[in-house]
Specification:
By secondary structure, the chain is an alpha+beta fold. The chain has one helix and eight strands. Strand 7 and strand 8 form a beta hairpin. It comes from Halorubrum persicum.
């Protein structure tokens, strides 16, 4: 009987000691997955800008959709907030970023549009709130607003 109690106590103690490392690993996994999602959106922007011609009439503009998947499951940390925003750095007139918050911590930002893009990027009616669990669909549209501009909007 004493062996069982001691075994349980040791198991609980080991679990308590390992929890902070597990939470850190989950946060790192979530960061990596959201960086991969931003890369997918970035590739979609680049593909649309390089393979299409911008036009001034938005109804005739080349368009595509991309799905942003919020990480979930046992290996991912809980995301409190996820949004597509315009970057806040001074001098960034165009571009986009994923901003998210994990477990009540600080806001984190992953830049989406590369510095040397063939078109500028505009978040329409931004910031765009995305689902913290599951998928959010975005529409990318290539218009001509003082040069080629990829407009990003959320699809319902």
């Amino acid at each position: 009987m004493i062996r069982v109690v001691l075994t349980v106590l040791v198991a609980v103690a080991l679990l308590a000691v390992s929890m902070p490392a597990l939470e850190d690993a989950r946060a790192v996994t979530t960061d990596e997955r959201l960086e991969a999602e931003s890369d997918r959106v970035e590739r979609a922007i680049g593909g649309l800008a390089s393979g299409s011609m911008s036009v001034s009439d938005p109804s005739l503009a080349a368009r595509t959709t991309v799905t942003v998947r919020a990480p979930s499951g046992v290996a991912a940390a809980r995301i409190d907030r996820l949004a597509l925003v315009e970057p806040e750095r001074p001098g960034d007139e165009s571009g986009a970023a994923l901003r998210y918050r994990i477990g009540g911590g600080r806001d984190r930002t992953v830049r989406i549009a590369p510095e040397a893009a063939a078109a500028s990027v505009d978040v329409v009616d931004g910031p765009i709130a995305l689902r913290t669990r599951g998928e959010s669909r975005l529409e990318l549209r290539l218009v001509d607003e003082d040069g080629p501009t990829v407009e990003i909007a959320r699809l319902e």
